[in-house]
Write a structure and sequence with these properties.
The complex is a heterodimer of chains A (660) and B (304). Chain A is mainly α. Chain A has helices at 2-7, 9-22, 26-52, 77-100, 102-106, 112-128, 134-152, 159-190, 195-202, 207-223, 232-239, 242-252, 254-267, 272-293, 299-326, 330-365, 376-379, 381-394, 401-413, 421-453, 470-488, 490-502, 512-515, 517-543, 568-571, 573-578, 610-632, 637-656; strands at residues 58-63, 70-75, 548-550, 585-590, 602-607. Chain A is globular. Chain B is mainly α. The longest helix of chain B is centred in the middle third of the chain and has 32 residues, at 120-151. Classes of the chains: A mainly alpha (660), B mainly alpha (304). Chains A and B meet through helix 18, helix 19, helix 20, helix 24 and strand 3 of A and strand 1, helix 3, helix 4, helix 5 and helix 8 of B.
Chain lengths: 660, 304
């Protein structure tokens, strides 16, 4: 009964999409989308509320014509957890769209298709998070991908945006092919497309299981934009409307992590190498993503790279969970998976807030280029405060929600519970990497906020408009509230994840409350800190109420201009120099010649994405490099020796692995 | 331990500024001057607190709040560190994670307050501060993890108490923490607190525009950070730290002053490093803390 209630959300959302598409006015489209999404949230929560709070599973099988034969639906704690925040956040994004797209509507653009697509995104969530059949899963996956692509190219008249959209479309379908390959492999072994049949096969370790794990991992990593599969992401985020970027980064692409967890549940107890792989992969992703945030000059690109960082952190949690599971350490496994799940949720909340605030900046200033902005906090104080809150939470600073999940991850990494000292050392190095990520993230936050919102406006030609309208402000305020509440009362979010964690077999042996006990103390510390901040903030106001106003001290120089301020590039220049091999810089310069130059010199630097650049290098010049190398083999004995040795090693590895 | 609470509070109130005064005295002695009275920092603080601040018209409320938030986070983190021997005011499992992130919050607030003025110098200062602290961030975690692995405890004061002998580990940790102390509290050879050339500063240039009570608060927070760092080092070197009691308190006090003497001596005898070399200097701390980690991980096997 309650599952039918749940599944009623699908036709309701589809109906809403159709009505939104055919309504005459934008207002009516928006109202229909909001109403049907609200109805769907109600139906889903009425149906799956029980699963969320840890009790029970909804299951049913529908007969269907071949080749599908039967579609199994199953809503458990994991699906309910993802739905419980995905759908409401999509609703808030739809609300934000009304205000954000208003300038386009004023020019006569019809927004019906946009709202219809937002409804389809919600529909794909209901489908993907509940269905147990690989074909229908792929259908939901594809609906989300295509709808997201169409949402990205809302401003399709710009060639740049069409290119970014196309780039995304291709990347996401490369991921789809890999996913299809994995499902085909499973189908060939089981003769079924049903997840239950997959589970029976995956329960036993085999080389095929390892291959499927790697294939699925790659597909889900592409969806969630892990390094090095992320190169589509900064483009797409910079091109899309702010709410689409927010939903893609915070909500839609979490489907990749959901897929990973769903597959983990099907697989059962993993092998140890899988845990280390996921942990290392997550750490590399977090490290690379955060380094790239520090050099971006487009605010939305910066936030996009930060998603790569944050999914990496979540994956570190899952990797830790895998390891704990392998070692038979239920407490460590619970800590790892809890950290990952909570980080997925918390990231959705603070990242959407940052993107929404960036959208408000774009609407007011028509650019999100850091080097042109400056001093926005005096013009847009509300947007500034909200952006600051979102990015502080993103840097995991207390007392906000980002710290909670990272703290749980630290308690696992630093607990010293690996069976061997080598394991402990590697886990601690993971924690140190996480600390480094936090440090770079703090630098990025200070840079992004400080350059865009503080100081003086760098480009005098920029006309900054008014604050965002209520329809944009309300979603931002909701997110801001969740960011603060999540930080001060972390038990609420842990409660949401309880049902998902109970699904894992090791949950029976461990006690979640005992494993996460340090979080209670963290919450107390954060609350005390929040109180201290309030008190001292008040003292600061009290002490400064009689203050005089003057100019900024120019160190004796009286003709300082806004152009002399530190820019975003100069802020991260030293960091970029240290990590130059990792973050290649392309320079175009024409330096002034002679003592009395006739023409002015110019210099332009641009931090390119290493992965994208290397891929193009390999595609464009890889053949030449190989030809050059092989041409040198006969001539130089050193090269011949090295090539021979390499061939021997490869053959040896293949032979010892039983592949020959 | 009933005596530890008032003792900790008392040292938290008195020692930070006293140690700053002591460092000034040490530096004066090295340069052959008599130096200001030991209590001069208290007078300075009182004088600044009475003044009315001046704000640049470029700034937003963030500029006013920044220093006070820095003070709040520093005070909060001071509660987690054993200040007068064995016990800290408060402790919970993995409190050092919270400690590091609270410092991070204070630092970000100060950097934003600096950027708020729109001054190129202050932007420069905050960029340097952000870079150095970012490179330094893993060091504290490596040291704390080494202590935790060796002792089997999970909070600052418990790990320090149950560390046992492990003198090699302690020395590596002390070396790493000494560099952390120099960077975080803006001391030589990383930063020159007494220079008058803005281009060469890191920390001081960030607070050029702060005046009156705000400046007082920044200076107090700096002194507190120095005190927290020297307390950690002193506890690591204090052979009686685990026992508590009068010997522990006395040794702690003497060692804190010894650390301050060391800071003052280094400042008098060594020139500031070129800014490009600071990352390498921080890498030294990273190396020392990695050695500490290895010692901790394998030392835990031999622990009784």
């Amino acid at each position: 009964m309650s599952l039918s209630l749940f599944l009623l959300a699908i036709p309701l959302l589809a109906l809403g999409a159709v009505l939104a598409l055919v309504s005459r006015s934008n207002r009516a489209s928006a109202a229909v989308a909001l109403a049907t999404q609200a109805g769907a949230i109600g139906l889903v929560l009425a149906g799956a509320g029980r699963c969320l709070l840890g009790g029970g599973v909804l299951e049913s099988v529908w007969p269907w014509p071949p080749p599908i034969n039967a579609i199994a639906f199953r809503v458990d704690g994991l699906g309910a957890f993802f739905l419980a925040w995905s759908l409401p956040l999509t609703w808030l994004g739809t609300l934000y769209a009304i205000g954000y797209l208003r300038p386009y509507f004023a020019q006569g653009r019809h927004g019906g298709s946009h709202f219809a697509l937002l409804n389809l995104i919600a529909l794909s969530f209901v489908l993907v998070y509940s269905v147990q059949n690989a074909l229908v899963f792929l259908l939901g996956w594809e609906i989300a991908a295509v709808a997201a692509w169409l949402l990205v190219i809302w401003d399709y008249r710009s060639q740049k945006i069409r290119f970014a959209g196309f780039n995304y479309l291709v990347s996401t379908h490369v991921g789809l092919f890999v996913l299809v390959a994995a499902f085909m492999l499973l189908h060939s072994k089981t003769g079924s497309m049903d997840f239950a049949a997959f589970a029976a096969f995956l329960a036993r370790p085999s080389p095929t299981r390892g291959t499927v794990f790697l294939l699925l991992g790659a597909a889900f990593a592409l969806k969630s934009a892990f390094f090095p599969f992320h190169s589509w992401l900064p483009r797409a985020h910079a091109a899309a409307p702010a709410h689409v970027s927010a939903l893609m980064s915070g909500v839609i692409h979490k489907a990749g992590l959901f897929g990973f967890l769903r597959f983990t549940l099907l697989m059962g107890r993993p092998e140890e190498w899988m845990g280390w792989t996921v942990l290392a992969f997550g750490a590399v992703s977090a490290f690379s993503g955060v380094l790239y945030t520090s050099t971006q000059r487009d605010l939305k690109r910066l936030l996009g790279y930060s998603s790569t960082e944050n999914v990496g952190i979540a994956a570190m949690g899952f990797g830790l969970g895998y390891l704990g599971w392998c070692w038979g350490n239920a407490s460590l496994a619970l800590i790892g998976f809890a950290a990952g799940l909570l980080h997925v949720f918390h990231h959705a909340i603070f990242k959407c807030l940052s993107f929404y605030a960036a959208g408000a900046v774009y609407q007011a200033a028509h650019t999100v280029d850091l080097e042109r902005l400056g001093g926005l906090a005096r013009r847009l104080p509300r947007t500034a405060a909200l952006f600051l809150l979102g990015s502080l939470a993103g840097s995991a600073l207390p007392p906000l929600n980002g710290l909670v999940s990272e703290f749980i991850l630290y308690t696992g990494l630093l607990s010293g519970q690996a069976p061997a000292p080598e394991g402990n050392v590697v886990l601690v190095i993971g924690a140190a990497a996480l600390a480094f990520v936090g440090g770079v993230s703090a630098l990025s936050t200070a840079r992004a906020f400080g350059v865009a919102f503080l100081g003086n406006q760098r480009d005098a030609s920029l006309q900054v408009g008014a604050e965002a309208p209520a329809s944009m402000l309300v979603p931002m305020l909701c997110h801001a509230l969740l960011v603060v509440v999540g930080g001060l009362f972390p038990q609420l979010a842990i409660g949401l994840g309880r049902g998902s964690l109970a699904l894992f077999p090791f949950a029976l042996e461990g006690n979640l409350d005992v494993s996460l006990a340090p979080v209670g103390a963290l919450a107390t510390a954060s609350r005390l800190l929040a109180a201290a901040l309030l008190v001292l903030g008040f003292v600061s106001w009290w002490k400064g109420r009689a203050a005089r106003r003057s100019v900024t001290w120019g160190c004796g120089y009286t003709a300082a201009t806004a152009r002399m301020q530190y820019t975003g590039s100069s802020f991260s220049e030293q960091l970029a120099r240290i990590f130059e091999p990792y973050m290649p810089v392309s320079r175009r310069e024409r330096l002034p010649a002679e003592l009395f130059p006739h023409s002015p010199g110019q210099i332009a630097t641009h931090h390119a994405d290493a992965v994208e650049r290397r891929i193009y290098e390999v595609v464009a010049r890889g053949e030449d490099a190989i030809v050059n190398f092989s041409a040198r083999i006969p001539a130089h004995s050193r090269f011949a020796f090295a090539a021979g040795l390499f061939a021997l090693i490869v053959l040896g590895a293949l032979a010892s692995g039983g592949w020959l | 331990m009933s005596a530890s609470l008032p003792l900790n509070l008392l040292s938290l109130l008195l020692l930070p500024l006293l140690l700053s005064g002591w460092i000034q005295r040490v530096k004066a002695l090295w340069s052959g001057r008599k130096g200001p009275p030991l209590l001069q920092p208290f007078h300075d603080l009182a004088r600044l607190l009475r003044k009315v601040p001046v704000y640049s018209s470029t700034t937003t409320p963030l500029f006013r709040i920044g220093p006070w938030f820095l003070l709040a986070t520093t005070l909060g983190s001071a509660a987690l560190v054993p200040l007068s021997g064995a016990r800290s005011l408060a402790s919970f499992p993995f409190d050092f994670v919270w400690f590091a992130y609270a410092w991070g919050l204070g630092r970000v607030c100060l950097m934003l307050a600096a950027l708020d003025t729109g001054s190129p110098f202050e932007g420069m200062g905050s960029a340097r501060e952000a870079l150095f602290s970012m490179l330094l961030e893993p060091v504290l975690f490596l040291v704390a993890a080494a202590l935790c692995l060796k002792s089997g405890a999970h909070s600052f004061d418990a790990a320090l108490r149950e560390l046992g002998g492990a003198w090699l580990l302690r020395l590596c940790a002390v070396l790493a923490l000494a560099i952390v102390l120099q960077v975080e509290s803006a001391r030589m050879p990383v930063d020159d607190p007494s220079t008058h050339l803005e281009l060469t500063m890191v920390h001081e240039v960030m607070v050029l525009d702060h005046s009156g009570p705000d400046l007082a608060v920044v200076q107090l927070a700096s002194a507190l950070k120095l005190f927290i760092g020297s307390s950690l080092i002193a506890t690591l070197l204090n052979p009686w730290a685990a026992s508590g009691g009068l010997a522990a308190v006395g040794a702690q006090l003497l060692l804190s002053f010894a650390v301050a003497t060391g800071v003052g001596t280094v400042e008098s005898l060594i020139a500031r490093l070129r800014l490009r070399l600071v990352p390498s200097y921080i890498a030294l701390a990273l190396g020392a803390s990695s050695v500490a980690l290895l010692l901790g991980a394998w030392g835990a096997l031999q622990a009784p």
